[in-house]
Amino acid sequence: MNILSYLSLTEDRLSILEPASVSGGILRTWPGKYQVLVHKRPNACIKGSVHDVSSKEQKDALRCYETDKYEVVRCTIFMRGRQVQGCTFRFEALWILIKSIRRFTEHAVNGNLRNGV
């Protein structure tokens, strides 16, 4: 199911998407085909589209669509010469994986791994 279905929008209503950008993150590909926003680049600018979520039902639908691998974060959205405060979804699973790999590597370097664990 695509995001239009989750928001109960049709293709002809795509005009409600406005060109916009956010700063403070970068895009990564996960797992091999999805573009996801990740944190940690304060001066980076990501271009995309913005949609004004106008109901609790749409907000809940977006959370369901994005799954628990994402967290909702506040951001500044730049669009058509103005900026507004809003929210976006930031991918968290990648950082969880990176942290796990770092912990494993630190344990391996420090000789704390026992029996291959």
Q: Could you walk me through the main structural features you see in this protein, from its secondary elements to its overall organization?
A:
- Helix content is 27%, strand content 43%.
- It is built from 3 helices and 4 strands; from the N terminus they run H-E-E-H-E-E-H.
- Strand 3 and strand 4 (82-91) form a beta hairpin.
- The model has no long low-confidence stretch (mean pLDDT 77).
Mean pLDDT comes to 77
Share of helical residues: 25-40%
The ordered H/E elements are: HEEHEEH
CATH superfamily: Gamma-glutamyl cyclotransferase-like
Number of domains: 1
Q: What is the CATH class?
A: Alpha Beta
**Rough outline:** globular
List strands and helices in order, with pairings.
Elements lengths: L2 H4 L11 E13 L3 E17 L5 H11 L3 E10 L2 E10 L1 H17 L8
Antiparallel strand pairs: 1-2, 1-3, 3-4
Please give a handful of descriptors for the protein shown.
43% strand, 117 residues, alpha+beta, 3 helices, Hypothetical upf0131 protein ytfp
Give a nutshell description of this structure.
By secondary structure, the protein is α+β, with helices and mostly antiparallel strands. 27% of the residues lie in helices and 43% in strands. The chain is built from three helices and four strands; from the N terminus they run H-E-E-H-E-E-H.
